[in-house]
Amino acid sequence: MRIEESGVSRWSRLDARLLLGLLAYACAVAFLQMGASPTAELDQAEQLILSQRLQWGYTNQPPLYTWLLWGIAQWTGPSLTVLLLFKVGLLLALAVSFVGIGHELRLSQRQRVLSLAGLAWLPAFVWEAQRDLTHSMLAATMASLMLWGSLWAVRRRTWWAYALPGAAAAGALLSKHNAVIFVVAVLLTLLSLPEWRRRLHLGGVLLAIAVLAGLCAPHGLWLLQHPEVLAQTTHKLIGAHDDAGWVAWGELLVSLLKGLLAFLMPWLLVAVPLWWWARRQSAAQSLMTRLLWVVMAVLLVFVLAIGAESFKGRWLFPLLFFVPLWLAASVDVGASRATQVMVRGGVALAVLCGVLLPLRIVWPVAGEVQTRQNLPLVGLGVQLQQAWGAVPPVVLVSHHHVGGNLRLAWGRVPLIQSPRMTWPVASPDEVMVVATDQDLRDPAFATWLRAQTNQAPGDLRWQTVHAPVLHRPQLPPYVLHWARVKRLPDGKHT
Known about the structure:
mainly alpha; five-stranded mixed β-sheet; 22 helices; 5% strand; disordered N terminus
């Protein structure tokens, strides 16, 4: 494979039109979802809770997503509009990096179009990211920016340019811990190809590593000081296997295969025949194919080394987001009708998902709450404020989905704490406790409440607020329970 010294194409009007079209589409879907419901989804609501405070770490997920939202919230306050538009920005940034990588790889306009259309065939991008995905979406975006920055820096042979991929790699690791697999795979790929290895600037590589280490060090130290957080991450990945040897390895590989299929379907259905009938050799194809194999090899080593057995499709998003780019670099776009199927089908899938995302909220379904966005939590927050007589200064909530949406109703004023995130705080004379029917029967909530107030749920005088389920008038009203807890002279509550 020969690397050209120059010839990276300029960005075209088609690139601009494609990106503007994607921006308009993502904004339209975001506003349609806001019109369908004022309620934030689960992961978004969690971010509303976590972004109340700025600290080096929060949960078993890295903190970059929360840091960025905290900074924005200093200007806007808690807002569903901000949450969804921030997601739009991430979707656009991923698409921009795809176009940038395409130019660095000298892909034609039609190949770049094919790569963007391929994203619409990945459910993690076209559905999950627009519905609720947070950390994985940011990690995929940062990983894509890292790949773009790496190609850009290597081609230019200037040591200072390596600071950009180093910063992007740190952003990926601070978004999702498993992004380390992709970061390692990019470096190994460049080292494994002679033409790219000769162009690597040793000082630049060291600079990238230094930037990465420097930016990740504070969160790394926080992790060392909170081993229970690492334990939670490990527990999510590692199952309770007592088997050993080939039996256990076989189960791990089957689990990995299921995760790969969950992430890659339905893209595989079109990509495989397109690659089979129109594959071709090129410098870009050699690089992207090597990267794909190295990512899979590092992932396999990771799986077998730690015994990971839990693979959701979206977990693989920061590792395999680039498969549409690999396909675009590996085929002759004019040699198969499957190219048109990929592009036109991608547009159709994007439109379909854009319609279904708000429709799943408003479409009447008998006998059940279809999504969490049907819960009238913001309206219940207004009722709780009226029942209390003001916005309570501190609120203890049984679940972060409820707590995050109460922030949308109340704004900046109260400090809302949940079992997911509790900060030490000087307690006011009274705090409000809010719980769902289900959580009142949960021993874990009872344990947490006793630790915070020295009271069990049965010790409190509960009152209720209720409101109709959004778009489900045939269902019983949704109920929240609330109680006042007064501070005693010794600092405990009653």
